[in-house]
Amino acid sequence: MEKFPFSFPQNTDLKENKIEKPQIKEGVDFAFEQIPELADIGTKEQYSKYLDTVFPESKIKDIVYHRTVEKFDVFDKSKTKEINGYRFYFSPINTGRYGQYVMQAVLNINNLAEPYNDEFINYVNKEHPEYTEGKSKNFYLPANIYVYANKYGYDGVYAFEGTNDDEYSVYEPEQINVLGSEQDMENFKKFVGNE
Length: 195
Hints:
Layout: H1 28-34, H2 37-41, H3 44-54, E1 64-68, E2 88-90, E3 101-107, E4 112-113, H4 118-127, H5 141-148, E5 156-159, E6 167-170, E7 176-178, H6 182-194
Parallel strand pairs: 4-5
Antiparallel strand pairs: 1-3, 2-6, 3-7, 5-6
């Protein structure tokens, strides 16, 4: 076997010469497929950056999905029901359930309740013993937080089961930015114009 008469330098200080590709938020490709008008305003990269500015303080940064039987782009509080805790529900994935129309959104949740997360429940019990103080032995804090999260000071709920039933929910239409809605398109145009 022939050997090369030279060796490559073993310089560990050399940096890899990589071209950084702009990050595109998961779900933006789908948004551009569903709403071709977005491409008339800007690129997928620009839209990803714009979405990060919509609710900058939100604990939830991902695009979420809402399935429905009718088309609309503004959520109506009067259509929520007591049985659903007067909330609007979103999935972290596009499940294909609950209706033929799929809406994408970003949510503004600053104080997220995770009623079925043991660490969260331990924190709540430690920091807020008043939630269970004086309650009967049948009082179940996770279920009560799930149903009445807003009464415990939370503006959103995450119920995680590791299935297609995982969901985020919020209480107010103002917490929802619907991708491709009239308001969203207008704000995206402003963002691109100011970039």
